[in-house]
Amino acid sequence: MPINKQQVRTALTHVIHPQMEKDLVTLDMIEDLVVQDSFITFTIDLPEKDTKLETLLKEKCEKAIRKYVAEDAVLDITTAVNISKFRNKENSGDFPGQGHRSQKKQQDEEELLSGVKNVIAVASGKGGVGKSTVAVNLACGLARTGAKVGLLDTDIYGPSIPTMMDTHKRPNITTQKKLVPLKKYGVRFLSMGLLVDPDQAMIWRGPMVTSAVKQFMEEVEWGELDYLVLDLPPGTGDIQLTLVQTVPLTGAVIVSTPQTVALDDARKGVAMFKKVNVPVLGMVENMAYFIPEDMPDKKYHIFGKHGARKLAERMGTNFLGEIPLEQAVRESGDAGKPIVLQEDLKSKSAQAFVELSNNVMQQLSIRNQEQAPTEKIDIKIKP
Ligand SMILES: Nc1ncnc2c1ncn2[C@@H]1O[C@H](COP(=O)(O)OP(=O)(O)OP(=O)(O)O)[C@@H](O)[C@H]1O
Ligand SMILES: [Mg+2]
């Protein structure tokens, strides 16, 4: 008789979590259950990394399935850390026994990035609007002023910073097992792309990505920094939401191009940060107008005019500046030498990035005068 999912679930009700004293099904720890002929696969979700517990639970699950379902079943059981799911359960009191650990976790989070004065997230709703370009040029623009700056690429699926900073070296590790950021153009930087194989990361589920990013935050020797710029992956989904909760963000910079489809997503980006009480420092209009290389005095508003500026006004958010669409921006990105580092600041986009960096610094000091540091946020995410 073919095996069905219900049989497997019933078998897993016999697997008791050693600390929680409830079964894995009741604790909602079983995900992605697939049954095909005698092949059974599923994931055991855990609130945090615990290798011993993972091995124990896998063994218990295997035993239960062989005993109650089929002795010769072919099993593929994986484990995953799903912070957001269990944080939600802790809050609602559904996941007893985690109170102590949760307190410890909170302390860890408070200490996270303690040597960093300002953490800035560069985000957008839509992909490909120039977040990484803005993040790199903002970091280098801030470093131009003599500030101590860090840059972290959190885009595990499509990391761009190694190319844009022209460095693909693996970072060193200190004797305390902390990663040492790379350094170029006066900016300390790291990219998950330097450590994780992007092809491998493609198959990671959201919680794995966020826990990897959190680990990244904790295990990097950033030292003292005036500014740490985070390049966020595109979108406003669970990954971004968990990311912006994990890190004590000082403020967010939203990037958009002027056209309607990008603006709609930018609006969602602003809403996401407001929802989690992270101040939005303002909006940047990238690719605001096209400047042909051979006619540098011409401006073509190919994606529309002032779309992001108007949206910022409507949403009561600052407008931080407009960056022209110029071939030199793309070329400098591909060559790994951010355009803002142009010595004579000849190009309009280099000037625009300098202005943007100044505006961001100004908004940060206003924000820091007017508001208390961003607190750890407790919001509920649907698992
Ligand atoms: N102002 C600009 N002028 C010319 N080219 C630009 C400009 N801004 C970005 N680009 C180019 O557009 C492409 C996409 O930019 P970028 O990678 O910064 O976008 P992104 O929002 O980070 O994308 P993703 O959502 O994939 O992370 C890159 O090739 C970049 O060089
Ligand atoms: Mg990017």
Automatic annotation (TrEMBL):
Sorted UniProt keywords:
ATP-binding, Hydrolase, Iron, Iron-sulfur, Metal-binding, Nucleotide-binding
Q: Provide the GO biological process annotations.
A: iron-sulfur cluster assembly
Can you tell me which residues bind ATP? G125, K126, G127, G128, V129, G130, K131, S132
In terms of SUPFAM superfamilies, this protein maps to: Fe-S cluster assembly (FSCA) domain-like, P-loop containing nucleoside triphosphate hydrolases
Has the keyword Ion transport been applied to this entry? no
Which residue ranges are recorded for the region named Disordered? 88-109
GO molecular function terms listed in the Swiss-Prot or TrEMBL record? 4 iron, 4 sulfur cluster binding; ATP binding; ATP hydrolysis activity; ATP-dependent FeS chaperone activity; metal ion binding
Q: What is the stated purpose of this protein?
A: Binds and transfers iron-sulfur (Fe-S) clusters to target apoproteins. Can hydrolyze ATP.
Q: Which family does it belong to?
A: In the N-terminal section; belongs to the MIP18 family.
Query: Which named protein is this?
Result: Iron-sulfur cluster carrier protein
- Originating species: Fodinibius sediminis
Q: Lineage in the entry? A: Bacteria, Pseudomonadati, Balneolota, Balneolia, Balneolales
